[in-house]
Design brief:
Elements: H1 5-11, H2 25-36, E1 47-52, H3 55-64, H4 69-73, E2 76-82, H5 84-117, E3 121-125, H6 130-136, E4 144-152
Antiparallel strand pairs: 1-2, 2-4, 3-4
């Protein structure tokens, strides 16, 4: 049973304490499929996913993430990579510098919402040593690390606290 997408958006939040229960392989496959359904400029799909479940490698990734312990603690970590060259072929510099990052961010968000819908906890990590992360997952030089997603089951108390959001009226201007 999955949640309604609007419920998933309201309930999704960053979790930094996970249980040791592994993410089932079929569930992980569904999350990666959800990521691949994201929109992308020219439908180029300039993403690549490194799924990390090795404890030692997760610890090294946590160090590369400036000591963010949830990277080592989560049962599964997905390093989301962009392929700027793929976007550059059709869109030039703007594709390489912007579109591929937007596209991989959309893929990451799809993964996060799907995980919440399936009852998993997540944390989107963006603070890391990009070059070191690339080396740790043995990615080719053409790929760029954009995000790291921690996946698992929450081990946090007060997991149901609602997050505050700005009012739509405060962040919107309608032009007629």
């Amino acid at each position: 049973m999955t949640k309604d997408v609007f419920d998933a958006m309201r309930e999704a939040h960053s979790v930094r304490q996970f249980t040791s229960v592994p993410v089932p392989e079929p569930t992980l496959t569904r999350l990666l499929e959800a990521a691949c359904w994201a929109p992308s400029a020219g439908n180029l799909q300039p993403w690549y996913f490194y799924v990390v479940q090795n404890s030692g490698l997760k610890r090294r990734l946590a160090d590369a993430c400036h000591g963010q312990h949830q990277v080592a603690e989560a049962p599964t970590v997905v390093v989301v990579m962009a392929d700027p060259a793929r976007s550059n072929e059709r869109y030039g510099e703007r594709g390489a510098q912007l579109y591929c990052l937007q596209d991989t961010a959309a893929a990451t968000q799809n993964m996060l919402l799907a995980a919440t819908g399936l009852g998993l906890a997540t944390c989107w990590v963006g603070a890391f040593d990009e070059r070191l992360v690339q080396e740790l997952v043995e990615a080719p030089p053409r790929l760029r690390a954009v995000a790291i997603v921690c996946l698992g089951y929450s081990n946090e108390e007060n997991d149901d606290e609602a997050k505050e959001r700005l009012r739509v009226a405060d962040v919107t201007k309608v032009l007629h």
